[in-house]
Design a protein that fits this description.
214 residues, binds ligand VIB, Heme Oxygenase, Chain A
Length: 214
């Protein structure tokens, strides 16, 4: 049987592949990414992280069973530690001022993504939340695995290597597996609104990468 995750992904495969193989990811892995582009990306990504925490919090609230809530809650604690230190280190390295971090002008994709996340939280529906979480996380695992040839070709610069590490360590792989299993457990492969939400999240992911160069 075709799973909800497979149905969702094949419905938006063009934009999905464009995001995975995006110039930003390729340049990051080959250490040719302009730090100015990474700096701009991370300032916007910090704003994005705000909505991501809300989405994950709503996932805890909406999940249909305790063991899922515990796994989701563990991830909240994890990103508040590990992810946070990557961002703090970069903001120090790139001399990002508190004023730049506090309410920067949002790019169109940041606005689009924030609206999608807020709307998804408002549905209070676990399957909807999982569709959006799956895009955010499995798309990142996919580029980090594919573009590094499963970790055989890694960048050297700490700012690039650190970002790859976050997205292909063992804990992250297990987390993405969990999200996909959950989506397949509670999501209906014939739910067109679900695959439309998944496609919208993929669209904004692609635009998010494009906006770092604009
Ligand atoms: C636009 C955008 N999409 C996905 C990710 C991957 N990701 C989503 S949430 C999270 C943990 C909290 O930062 C990570 C690593 C990202 N960083 N930025």
């Amino acid at each position: 049987m075709t799973t909800a995750y497979e149905t969702c992904k094949s419905a938006c495969s063009e934009e999905w592949d464009a995001a995975v193989n995006h110039r930003f990811n390729r340049e990051l892995v080959s250490d040719t990414l302009d730090d100015k582009v990474l700096r701009k990306y991370l300032i916007q990504d910090w704003q994005y992280t705000d909505g991501f925490y809300s989405l994950l919090g709503q996932a805890v609230a909406s999940a249909d069973r305790l063991e899922s809530k515990i796994r989701l809650g563990r991830q909240l604690g994890f990103i508040a530690n590990d992810e946070d230190s990557y961002f703090r280190d970069r903001f120090r390295q790139f001399k990002v001022t508190p004023a730049e971090l506090d309410r920067p002008t949002l790019t169109p994709s940041s606005v689009g993504m924030a609206r999608l996340y807020a709307d998804t939280v408002d549905t209070r529906r676990y399957a909807n939340i999982l569709a959006v979480l799956c895009v955010a996380e499995s798309l990142y695992l996919e580029w980090a695995q594919r573009l590094t040839d499963q970790g055989r070709v890694l960048p050297r610069k700490e700012q690039n290597l650190g970002w790859v590490r976050v997205h292909r360590e063992a804990g992250f792989i297990e987390w993405v597996d969990f999200l996909i299993d959950e989506l397949n457990r509670v999501g209906d492969p014939d739910d067109h609104a679900l695959s439309a939400r998944f496609a919208k999240a993929t669209h904004w992911e692609l635009e998010f990468l494009n906006d770092a160069y604009r």
